[in-house]
């Protein structure tokens, strides 16, 4: 180990995006390895709007493995953390730092402890798949720290064991999680389909919907579905495999109509099998339903899909607009139907890529009040304008995969103490 | 025809119950004959609380077929009315009234016109399957008027062509609609399983839930599901046939646990395939979801099901309590979670069998305010007590099939003019 005393600290900081599935993962065939009953496809979200930053560090002075999430110490004793740490440590390689004057041999990693600090640049508990970005970032940064030789695909199989959907956050653009066939999970990995530049007209608007009811965790929810739903196996074996092929083709061809149809149908089918679970699981609420109705009516009135929607295990809507022009129209319609509360600050009601708000011609609350009702809604029931049903909107786009942050100012741990800054 | 002038009027009045499916009908294999893709099972509701009364009359003085629904003239030109009228007329037999001194020969029926008046003893447009009771009553009363020799099963095949679920209203108790095999629909008929006395401990509470969104009609909804849902055929071919067998057995054995499990699961699966439709169909809303959560939590806390729930093509909940004691507890819990609005009249908030309200110890609005929170809810999220989410409750029970009303005071048409009273 180090030859000049034991005070050195080695540190790596990385940033990893979150992702949203357009063909859904729901149901495991192996609970402990986290092997899914079907493949899934996701779009990676731009990390400048939604991402996790993680700093991992190692030092002979550390007494135990520790982790801080958003500044608060959390336990690492959970099986999923332990499994990721174990898998990475077992693949660790020699690390030598001539400048700091130490060398860590492969075998030393078993004895060294790590400090981990992680931070989400978006509100936690907003149902925005923070565990996907979190476990991806943990695995990616630890792999760099411990000098693993594995490629991103092989790392994705480790991240998968932390949180299934985390494996898809190892790449940017559109990503497939191949369910694999092996019982050890070695081929249940993420595969990049196209990078984020392939289809760069797409704009994504996320409505963070206010939830009144406590939600079922996705871990227990998907277990209940696999155990009780008479429809889930038919979905996994007969429906999804065809959709995966069609979705890959739609993405490759930038065929928005097929992409939107598949995304919406698959989101709805995922929520259908949740409802087919005993007891039933409801993730979408009346606000989610209103957002779907708005998009469906608009798409039908245009004759061809303008916007795709997809909902994960919660009421939040992720809407994917075919281009920027459509996205500004979408934002106008959404702000009309779901205006901010009177005392709200518009600047915190629409976050992320704020230029979309400007392009939509909305700069002040008065501009929101002046918005015209979406014509496709007024033909039937007059649009409700209830305040408070949406907490805020995030404007974003497809984004890149994990990156290392080399600027020490971006590290979350102090390079002297190894504690959170 | 009549020998003593043409001024006679022949009149029949009947009363027919509505029904609620516990194994759901959703999807037709023949749109025009109304042949379903799966069999279904329903419970007939007590006509003293929910029923249709219909008076049909014939006279040589009538110039055309006319119908009044709840006092308002409606068109009989729709295909479903025409089909029922044609099917019944083609089976009409000789009728002779010695007292009034006329005879109608079989062949005369083609030339004679009918007047029909129908009345629902419950609010229309409340999503309470008024068309089921309505078409059953139309067919039953016309069959009596025209002296058909067909039995109730054969009449059910005619009522089915008016509204699918109407066929199940030809019998009391629990009723199976056998999907049949014949392409002409002759074997797609209702079959009585047990009469209303077989399982007379059951008590039914219906929550009429306030709907904000316009609902998809069941006719177009089930067509869309059959055309677009990848799950519906699996449900119809693989899931429902097994459930039909299990449900028949549960009813025969008065096995409430199995009955409740099947009823709830099948209701949820019906709504799941609605969600799997493109565009998705939402019949349940947040209030429906809260009712399900309440019942599910209570059933789990008791270890064995106390209450079954089922939802038709709308947000209303039909809850079936295993006995009267359970039903009073259910009503207390429901009134706690869904209290009437401050200016409401308790007497119009709980209708039907009002003795249940007395047994629940609730006589005044003060009694509602004094209700204790359901213990199974307080353990997690505190129960919301939002007023106005439920319009009213109907307390009822399994009931009898169609009956003739012989008291002329109960007729809806004037025996002299043939017009609504």
UniProtKB/TrEMBL annotation, chains A, B:
Domain Mvd1 C-terminal span(s) in chain numbering: 204-404
| Domain Diphosphomevalonate decarboxylase-like N-terminal as annotated: residue spans | 17-190
Q: Which GO terms describe its molecular function?
A: ATP binding; diphosphomevalonate decarboxylase activity
InterPro entries for the chain: GHMP_kinase_C_sf, Mev_decarb, Mev_diP_decarb, MVD-like_N, Mvd1_C, Ribosomal_Su5_D2-typ_SF, Ribsml_uS5_D2-typ_fold_subgr
Q: Name one GO cellular component term.
A: cytosol
What EC number is given for this enzyme? Answer: 4.1.1.33
Q: Which UniProt keywords apply?
A: ATP-binding, Isoprene biosynthesis, Lipid biosynthesis, Lipid metabolism, Lyase, Nucleotide-binding, Peroxisome, Steroid biosynthesis, Steroid metabolism, Sterol biosynthesis, Sterol metabolism
Enzyme class per UniProt: lyase
| PANTHER family reported in the protein's UniProt record | DIPHOSPHOMEVALONATE DECARBOXYLASE
Its function, per the record, reads: Performs the first committed step in the biosynthesis of isoprene-containing compounds such as sterols and terpenoids.
- The name this protein goes by in its record: Diphosphomevalonate decarboxylase
User: Which organism's genome codes for this protein?
Assistant: Arnebia euchroma
